[in-house]
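To fix ideas, we quote verbatim a fold written out as tokens:
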Amino acid sequence: MTPSSSPRAQVDIDLDAIRHNLALLGARTPGAEVMAVVKADAYGHGALPVARAAVEAGASWLGTCSLGEALDLRRAGITTRLFSWLDVPEVDFAAGIEAGVDLAASSVGELRRIAAAVPAGTQARVHLKIDTGLSRNGCPPAGWAELVSAAAAEPRVDVVAIWSHLACADEPGHPSIDAQAKRFAEAYDVARAAGLDPKRHLANSAAVLTRPDLHFDVVRPGIAMYGLNPVPQAEDLRPAMTFRSAVALVKRIEAGESVSYGHTWTASHDTNLALVPAGYADGVPRSLSGRMDVWLGGQRRPVVGRVCMDQLIVDCGDFEPGVGDEVVLFGPGTKGEPTAREWADKLGTIDYEIVTSMYRPRVRRRYLGAGS
């Protein structure tokens, strides 16, 4: 690697892996449309390139959290159906309606704010959300009939769908899944009785993989399209993100010398150290100090001492790497390198958090595969 091609830290995004994952998920849901979820800058992978790859792979919808995310995609030329589901009350719904973005309503008040923003002679495309047991966003069952009636009577609104979100789909067999499915079915019956004919969408990545009975009309794969499996079963999903850096300095220290802040690690023998210019400002959690490996010189090597803001130290033993040699902090795991899931397990979190946190000013993003 030459200096011009070696940023201090870089994430590579394999767009072909994303296409592969969506094709696999689409094959699992032959009777449903696929809404590729690209919220939070596509889980840290880059919303626009991922959105384009997802559409090429057959997604007929794109899902965002905020209206701003959806409008950014529209302005960039994305014409695919967009759905935005959570914003502050002061959001300008009119901009979304004019851009053809589908909106979510979880209350009569929210429905009325959307209707009030509709330009004359048009309609807002709305998805009514029922809270089936996550107790987060969504209309409580006690208020559902009122919301449905209000939507059915509102000429400025076209009710496209009803939807909800599962709390424990990543725990196959959890009793809440069937309980939520039952409430969702009841909510659909209420909507139909009010004269509506909405689509239904409930299945996230885990339900796409484990509950074909809940696929309905549209499925919403998120983490699985990025190659990270939310359920403990074998799938041919390919992680799309690799986090890499390069060796900036090599030095040999004698036994008894200590490393980094606090001298938490002391060499038991003479050894070579590699300095890697990536630290917690670049997405390497400080809490992984002394608990992580990197892939360097064809094998795993331990990070020793504390991870610093801008750098970390790798113990290479008698192996002497070269300045500029590639260091993989996490990747797909196909060569034996650490993975985002491994980081998450050590930190007591989920791999969603690891990859989503990789959008940082000092971390360069590079795209691989067709269309990169």
Observations:
- The chain has a mean pLDDT of 96.
- Residues 69 and 127 are 17 Å apart (CA to CA).
- Residues 175-193 form the longest helix (19 residues).
